[in-house]
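Intended use. Records such as the Uroporphyrinogen-III synthase entry shown here are meant for training and evaluating sequence-to-structure methods. They are not intended to support clinical decisions.
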Amino acid sequence: MSLKIKKVLVSQPKPATGKSPYYEIAKKYDLQIDFKPFIKIEPISLREFRRQKINIQDYTAIVFTAKIAIDHYFRLCRELRFQIPESLKYFCLSETIAVYLQKYIVYRKRKIFFSELATLEDLIIAICKYDKENFLIPVSNVHGNGLSSLLNKKNIKCSTAVMYRTVSNDFNQDEKFDYDLLLFFAPAGINSLLKNFPDFKRNDVAIGAFGSATAQAVEQAGLRLAIEAPTPEAPSMVTALENYIKKLRKIL
């Protein structure tokens, strides 16, 4: 098992500008960082959404576990011509996700809550303080039922609504794949990795996972989970990556 990290793959689209913090880390630690999404997000149509028989207006609070969920929630509200009430409460898995709401709402004028520890357990504690609310959780078509199951056990009224589709992004068969570290942001990315590279079982390749569900998918696939985020020490994958590189270089 190699501890040296020289080549990193971030399973996200390449940043539009050269100001990404990933580039700063690459320069600072002499790394090669490439970007290649293992999955792609597709919107579900209004017709598909309506088949779920979800009435958005029935919900008094909404739970976001990812920025992409925010984008598609507001997209569907716009397509439904639903005027989002100012009284709606927002619960977010992390502060980073909560701040992203500024893209759509006046942040300081809304009731927004987020997990200080960036964990589902901590988020549920915040949600349970408002147990009279009716919660809606926007998810992808490949979502797990972890959060809704936990809330149901606590007698919190909640529903999940599929608002976008996560599909595998296929690689070319002859594409070179010689990375020391892979960073993933959704369980579907792990599924795509195994689909594209069915023989991928190398323990010398470190895996970084954003979110507990992604980390669980890494472990279930028998891969080497080296980085987990978000955490109080590393609220973003960028911070987690830098902390990991620093730790390795101290060891070496």
